[in-house]
Amino acid sequence: MLGAIGFSLVISEYSDVVDNDIASRNYLQQNSIKLHELETDLCITINLGRNADSADNAEAIGSYVEKINYSMSDCRELMKKYEAIRKTGEVEKQYQLVKTAMNQYNEIVSNELLAQIDAGHFETANSIYFERFINKRNSLDDSLNQLLTVTNESIDKRYDKAEFNAKVLRVFFIGFGIIVLVLLNMLESRRKRIAKNLETAVDANEKTQQSLYKAMFTDNVTSSNNRISFVIEYGGEPVEIPAGEAMYFVMFDIKDFSGINFRYGTYVGDKILAMTVERIGDVFDDATIYRTGSDEFVAVIKTDDSQDTFTKVANLVERAYRSLTSDYDVNNSRVSVDYDISLVRKENPDIVDMNIHNQLKQAFTNGSSYTSGNCRYYKD
């Protein structure tokens, strides 16, 4: 009877490590990723308001504000799940620091940054962002990292405690003979299995973190770089173009994509998105391709700045247009798709920032028409 009780206590200790500590660490890591997504969307929103007529970007700004509010809601839900898990005193103490930092973070986002954005005061929002928000963000990151460290230490301590208890039980019950020895051997076998499961769970969690990090920058439908990747590349410090080099930005926008989804279903729509990236990549094999919207892609091509490169790139655009507008055979259906295409060339001493996205959009209506009429372009 005593052996069975001891066995149950040790197994319970190990199970608690796997079920509670690993789950709590997952919630913290997911929360950290959500916070970085929120920060990216804040940067985009403020830049949209500062770098152009905010009235022209009102719809986009409203969309990003809605995403920011959703991200804040997701963060609150993750922290509620974390709060419900039983914690040691040391972990609970550090969690209260994180909770305080999170409340301060939410307050400056909701009551200051979003309030200034809603009022159209984007320069004020930008000042708040760099003067106070970054400090709050860094403080929250430090608190979250410390909480993760304390959680890891808690796992190690509870693991050592359970292992120690198993050894004590083995020595204590050895005098009860063969039956107790068999039980202890079973316990040891179980301990090894649980320890292996714990190791597997930790390894899987690390891989999950890597996958989540990759997912932040990769579009899961097309496997191309996603919008966040584009913003990180061109939304921070302006990109300087070296002497003797040029950069071409080509935007492909699927016409009436919502109609395709309505007529053929989202499965066919997703396949067309994926095949669009494949066909662009077949033509621009050295380009970096981003999915910057639901039906919008940008290919970035780096070349020299010689006079004939524009003609070469424009000819490749024509070739891409012919490939993209060839029928798609998906799910026993032949689907015809058309595209709007714009092209912007940048060369030294130009710099590139997030305004390039607006220039590509504006080229659809204000750019010069290429010979075939299939593409409009700006050429500095």
Automatic annotation (TrEMBL):
Which Pfam families does the record associate with it?
4HB_MCP_1, GGDEF
| Stretches assigned to the GGDEF domain | 245-376
Any keyword NADP? no
UniProt keyword Membrane, yes or no: yes
Matching entries from SUPFAM superfamilies are given as: Nucleotide cyclase
What InterPro entries does this protein's entry cite? GGDEF_dom, HlyB_4HB_MCP, Nucleotide_cyclase, Rev_trsase/Diguanyl_cyclase
- TM region positions: 168-187
**Alphabetical list of PROSITE patterns matching this protein:** GGDEF
Record key words, sorted: Membrane, Transmembrane, Transmembrane helix
Q: What is this protein called?
A: Diguanylate cyclase (GGDEF) domain protein
Organism, per UniProt? Ruminococcus albus 8
